Amino acid sequence: MEDCCKRKKSRSPDEYKKLIHRLNRVEGQLRGIKSMVENSAYCPDILIQVAAVQAALSGFARELTGQHIRDCVVTDIREGRLETADELTEVIKKLIR
What we know:
CATH topology: Methane Monooxygenase Hydroxylase, Chain G, domain 1
Helix content: over 70%
Distance between the termini: 19 Å
CATH superfamily: Metal-sensitive repressor, helix protomer
Number of strands: 0
Radius of gyration: 17 Å
Number of domains: 1
Structural class: mainly alpha
Largest sheet: none
């Protein structure tokens, strides 16, 4: 796992923009939930916002996974680095828990 922290991926301006947009949205939603808790909002109202954050994070994960498959995984497999498929399988297992 230590190895993955040293690896980097260059992203196009469009890829970067899409990912940051999604993360900004999640960040705003989380701030909203915090504010709701601080202001003693009704539990179901907070839970609806939690569901929205979960959906937004899932959207981020789908976008990032798609980019990873199209760029990194395809390239690595073409270059004979088949262990990338195993790595992707492990990541997907964690995403769908």
